[in-house]
Amino acid sequence: MGYSPGPGTFSDRGSVYSSVVGLAKREGEFARVVALEGKYIPQSGDLVIGVVKDSGFTSWLIDINSPYLGVLDVKDALDKFDPVLEDTSDYFRVGDTLLLKVKSVDSVRRVSLTIKEDGLGEINGGKLIKISPTKIPRLIGKKGSMIKMLKHVTGCDIIIAQNGVVWINGEERVMEILSNAIEKIEKEAHTSGLTDRIKEMLSKKLGGEYGDSRQETVEESSDRDTSSNK
Amino acid sequence: MEVGILKRADGSAYVEIGDNKVIAAVYGPRELHPRHLQRPDRAVVNCRYNMAPFSVEERKRSGPDRRSIEISKVTRLALEPAIFTEYFPRTSIDIFIEILQADAGTRTTGITAASLALADAGIPMRDLVSACAVGKVAGRIVLDLTKVEDNFGEADMPIAIMPRDNRITLLQMDGTMTEEEFKEALKLGMEGCRKIYKEQRRALKEKYGQGD
Predict the structure, then answer these.
(1) Domain that holds residue A173
(2) Rounded to whole angstroms, how far apart are CA atoms A95 and A81?
(3) Which chain B residues are closer than 8 Å to A69 by Cβ?
(4) Mean local confidence (pLDDT), B145-165
(5) DSSP characters for B185-199?
(6) Which of A93, A123, A153 represents a domain boundary (last residue)?
(7) B120 contacts in A (CB within 8 Å)?
(8) How many CB atoms lie within 10 A of CB B114?
(9) How much of chain B exceeds pLDDT 70, in percent?
(10) Which of B30, B120, B125 minimises the CB distance to A37?
(11) Model ipTM?
(12) Most buried among A24, A47, A96, B173, using CB within 10 Å?
């Protein structure tokens, strides 16, 4: 009969209405709207890149580019920690950049993070780029098509996090070009044929060179398939 | 009407109606400090209406005055019902409205602009809020009074509605009207709001190259 309200919509007296400016999609019985703007609201299981804002007695406060601050408890970071003898800032200090996962979010949106899984950890070197979290799925692409193309054409390491933060690493000049490409993807996320246009633009600018300067300056695997998220 | 004119704000809009020129900016949802002002079940909405000193002929002294504080409050009450504040516990949504040029009807232009800025920020809403002023001048019911009409007229009635189902979120009156005149004015005002709504929707679509 009628549709059920999916994300970005709500129902009012039998009809489904959009609550945000976005692209309407029908998925089975659900009508949903993909928002074109909006803040990052953490969800359990999300991969996020955060910056340590404060270190407490047995935890760290992490800025995850959201109206909600994330908390990383020592039990989700270290196997052994003695708060009497050690200091949390011996491990992660204010300003450190970390790749984490959202462990859980409670009813008042208090966010618990973890760094204990494979591939998570401190991020060194490279460049961080912030884009609107709503454009992340486009940056990943259908079945990872966009990110695969970007990695292949630029030869850079790329980690895309759900909270709108992207980490890239490679040659200085190539990173600059990739950074511009990401900006362009963000601006034109709602248009079609984007993957091909970006591929063309990059190939032209890089002159057909496929950078093989893959630097392993980070602990996590660079083959991490972030496209499998959600 | 144009949205996204301020890059730093999460959402913004510039609206010109008649000789009124208004900018609105929205920041949020964002962390709310101090902590004791946080609400565990929803976002707190703050609204500041302000007139630039150069917006009126007689230079307006900088800073909030009683009128601005009242307008800030009624503006908040006009916009809040439209916002899904329960989606963002413990945060604040801050709305700023600056009147750059005033010619009566600034509060309604402000509400119209703020609505656009909220939508531009991607803040989920039940509907846009569209506003305009209606009044009585020289015995006739008129729409969108100018400063002169407001000063010499018999009544001024700003209205704001959520046009989808015609729910009124602001209704004030300054002056005198009979019951019939009020009914006529309300009808005309709501029609005016619906026209504003069309323009608001167009401005939002234009941002993505899809205006009308």
Answers:
(1) 127-219
(2) 21
(3) 31
(4) 93
(5) HHHHHHHHHHHHHHH
(6) A123
(7) 21, 37
(8) 29
(9) 99
(10) B120
(11) 0.86
(12) A47
